[in-house]
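Q: What residues go here?
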């Protein structure tokens, strides 16, 4: 079990999920709608677009600190 880096409590496992057409990515800053997001500095694709289902990835939550930790 992973522990919260902030308060030291054990994190609960679960899933972070999106609206039905969402995809999640990470970058240093959020790219504008006209930019190709893949070219943004620090870009990491977390999930691919998915037709007809919820995008989801495994995540841990600390309800105490209101914090979600994601492995990719
Ligand atoms: Zn915590």
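A:
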């Amino acid at each position: 079990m992973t522990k919260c880096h902030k308060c030291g409590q054990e994190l609960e496992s679960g899933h972070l999920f999106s609206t039905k057409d969402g995809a999640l990515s990470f970058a240093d800053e959020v790219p504008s709608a006209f930019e190709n997001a893949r070219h943004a500095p620090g870009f990491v694709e977390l999930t691919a677009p998915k037709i007809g289902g919820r995008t989801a990835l495994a995540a841990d939550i600390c309800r105490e600190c209101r914090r979600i930790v994601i492995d990719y």
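A: Context that may help when evaluating the design: The mean pLDDT is 89. The pocket of zinc ion is lined by residues 4, 6-7, 9, 62, 64-65, 67 (CB under 6 Å).
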